[in-house]
Design a protein that fits this description.
The protein is mainly β. 9% of the residues lie in helices and 37% in strands. It contains one helix and 18 strands.
Length: 244
């Protein structure tokens, strides 16, 4: 009886061994391991300007934009810092206040938005530091560049055009500027900074009330406004832009 058990045991071992060696159908190649990312992120594009190109006439309402070659951990205002520069390009503390948004899906672009518009005819410096990619590799060196804001915007075009007769008694009036402007700069203590005046009778000029005023759609350079009252036929009107 013991002999029979040994035979059965031996057969079981052989059979099991046969099944194990035959299940794989031969040797199996393991998948190659993915190399570990040890490369630091690289800045591929900046705006306005770059470290090798000082940009002038930058709008006081522009964003600071930084694009990377790979996905990074979401940056904040401690990673993208904007300084106003004084004499001899020395930094003036504290840095300019703002917030940072990051698009990691398509563009790998960080955008710094200032809380209020910049000063005109002023030089600024951008400092990008401590940026890390999704594998915790850090930007090798801080990246610095400068730009200079424009002096003053100029009016490029008006609608209706200057000295042109309009057949519309209540036209939509627009003013196109040379650069982007902030919508809140259209007002001064709640008063509109654009005035339409009836100038047909120099002894009795009067202003026409503006009903609505806003930036035109997605165009930050063009202001569009409508009048409350209709214009008087065969009368002349003037537009004035600036603080009242």
């Amino acid at each position: 009886m013991l002999i029979n058990l040994k035979k059965i045991s031996a057969i079981s071992i052989v059979t099991t061994t046969f099944l194990l060696t035959s299940c794989g159908g031969g040797s199996t190649d393991l998948p190659a391991s993915i190399p570990e990312d040890k490369q630091a992120p690289v800045i591929t594009k900046t705006f306005p300007g770059s470290s090798d190109r000082l940009m002038f006439d930058v709008s006081v309402a522009d964003h600071i934009v930084v694009t990377f070659n790979e996905d990074i951990l979401k940056p904040d205002a401690s990673n993208i810092v904007l300084y106003k520069l004084g004499n001899n390009d020395t930094r003036i503390d504290p840095p300019i206040q703002g917030s940072v948004d990051y698009d990691n899906l398509d563009t790998r672009t960080a955008k710094f938005t200032i809380d209020s518009f910049l000063d005109k005819a002023t030089r600024y410096e951008v400092l990008v530091k401590n940026i890390k990619d999704t594998n915790n590799n850090q930007l090798n060196l801080s990246y610095v560049w400068k730009f200079e804001t424009t002096k003053n915007p100029t009016i490029v075009k008006t609608t209706p055009l200057n000295n042109v007769v309009t057949a519309t008694a209540r036209p939509t009036i627009s003013i196109e500027f040379s650069e982007a402007i902030l919508e809140k700069s259209l007002f001064n203590n709640g008063v509109v900074n654009i005035i339409v005046t009836n100038v047909s009778n120099p002894a009795n000029n009067f202003d026409v009330a503006i009903k609505t005023i806003k930036l035109k759609g997605n165009d930050p350079k063009t202001v569009q406004f409508d009048l409350t009252d209709i214009l008087i036929s065969q009368n002349s009107y003037a537009k004035r832009v600036g603080p009242n």
